[in-house]
Design goal:
By secondary structure, the chain is mainly α. The protein has one domain (about 30-170): Serine Threonine Protein Phosphatase 5, Tetratricopeptide repeat, CATH 1.25.40.10. It is built from 9 helices and no strands. It is flat, with a radius of gyration of 24 Å. The mean pLDDT is about 85.
Length: about 180
């Protein structure tokens, strides 16, 4: 009788473990998002960057695809390992600031975004208006985040929403 009870308890425990383990399989490190649905696209971008490390367009495409796949650490890694000449270009720095923000380093992202704005205002025609507007808007949001003491925007969603609201609110004039 005691043997049946022990066997029953073992079966119940094994069943509970089986149910708790779930039925999902292990996911890939880079989950399929956006254009990175096909892993060969990511491999192709990595090969392109390895073949021509001084091409900032290919570097930005690879880093952007990492960000789209929710892997900001990989984006930071590829941007930080780029040659100095490429790494200091305004568009690359702008993307680097985004990767820093998504990695939870708002203060560092703000410093990089300020560098982008400084570089763009030093010489006319070096940056297009989209880049300047985007960098200025992100710098405003980052200043609010840092001012509120938020380093990781994902860890503090309420404060992040407040910072975004404060940075993007508009003043309207009523004319009578």
């Amino acid at each position: 009788m005691a043997g049946r009870l022990v066997n029953g308890l073992v079966l119940v425990a094994a069943g509970a473990l089986w149910m708790a383990s779930g039925t999902e399989r292990e996911r890939a490190v880079l989950s399929p998002v956006g254009e990175a649905r096909d892993p060969s696209v990511m491999v192709g971008l990595e090969a392109d960057v390895a073949a021509s490390p001084n091409d900032d367009g290919k570097l930005r495409m690879l880093a952007q695809s990492y960000l789209d796949a929710h892997a900001p650490g990989l984006a930071l890694g590829v941007l930080e390992r780029a040659p100095e000449e490429v790494r200091t270009r305004s568009r690359v720095l702008h993307l680097y600031a985004r990767a820093l923000l998504e990695e939870g380093r708002a203060q560092d992202a703000l410093a990089v975004e300020r560098t982008v704005l400084r570089t763009c205002t030093m010489a006319d025609g070096i940056c297009d208006t989209w880049l300047i507007a985007s960098a200025r808007r992100r710098a405003d949001i980052l200043e609010e985040l840092v001012g509120l003491g938020v380093e990781d925007a994902r860890a503090e969603p309420e404060a992040s929403a407040l910072a975004y609201h404060n940075a993007t609110r508009e003043a309207r004039l009523a004319v009578r």
